[in-house]
Amino acid sequence: MDDVVASAPGRVNLIGEHTDYNDGFVLPTVIPQRTFVAIARRDDTRVRARSETLGAEDGYELGREARTGRWIDYVQGVTRALVRRGHVVRGFDAVITSEVPVGSGLSSSAALEVATMRALRDAFGLALDDLEIARLAQRGENELVGAPVGILDPLACSLGEDGVALFVDTRTLACERIAIPDTIELVVVDSGVAHDHAQGGYRERRAQCEEAARALGVRALRDVGEDDLASLRAPLDRRARHVVTENARVLRAVDALRRGDVHALGALFDASHASMRDDYEVSVPEVDRLVARAKAHPAVLGARLTGGGFGGAIVALARAGHAHDVARAIAVEPGARVLVPKAQN
Ligand code: ADP
Ligand code: MG
After folding, report:
1. 182-344: what CATH class?
2. Which of 112, 113, 157, 193 to mutate to test the pocket of ligand 1 (most atoms within 8 A of CB)?
3. CATH number assigned to the domain with residue range 4-176, chosen from the 4 options 3.10.180.10, 3.30.70.100, 3.40.50.80, 3.30.230.10
4. Distance from the alpha carbon of residue 15 to the mean position of ligand 2, in angstroms
């Protein structure tokens, strides 16, 4: 049988950060870079996978998936989630190639999971829709990799489309596609900073949100407003305020997109960054400098840290026609690397 090739894009979150595990709202879109997975079926139950990106090969036995701490866990998570859900998968050889920068907050992990699931769907004729693929990708990453990631990344990689923002209510998983006006272009620049404590910091923030929700007697911070937070101790009050105001900003951003009001959208980006920096305390000086560079450019409408924080990338809104120029101006910071617009070659 010929190889089956499938792919999935990386994603960038426009606004709605640290809201997905609070039953809140997110607004991601896809980036031009994609991950490709080629699969050839085997007659046994062996899985062999080669990542051209990492120059590495690994394998395991279907049904015997177990955490190794290596990249193959992302593939193991996919097959285990599929099989547990009752899908019939047999052995396969996989070759992975990717343009999505790994570990820069553009979700190379979900791109890999979704592309692998799509390839397996085609190779083995599995009945899987895009939403189910996102759910199973999240489950695999949670259970096998052991990363407590939310639904945002796999949902964006599985349901996202070029030129469209995906408005998601993470409580109901209701999704709405909203066109990004052609008067703006996105710029994404990586800070080159990846902090060791990113996972620990993420877990701590999650735990603080859960504690705040418990203290307020609600299921999730989605269910409270800014006026409800006075009884919380510090820093839970600041953490909760970020989540509550960020949810409100997503709703206003959706409204601004619908009206084509790109200035309002830019102002919401700026406010989101300030909230992540001051209330949620997940920014770092290198990222703040990139945001400052972006905002100093006359063609920029707004800029913010995107992704979980503790390093990672920023997303800026530029007037159409200026993205390359803006990207160049931001990337003068040491260690910075332009991710979007994609380099022409
Ligand atoms: P992000 O999703 O933001 O890029 P993560 O830490 O969530 O960062 O996921 C990165 C990990 O996903 C890598 O360390 C690697 O284990 C795995 N991964 C992503 N892309 C690939 C790839 N093309 N080949 C092999 N492993 C990959
Ligand atoms: Mg990831």
Report:
1. alpha beta
2. 112
3. 3.30.230.10
4. 17
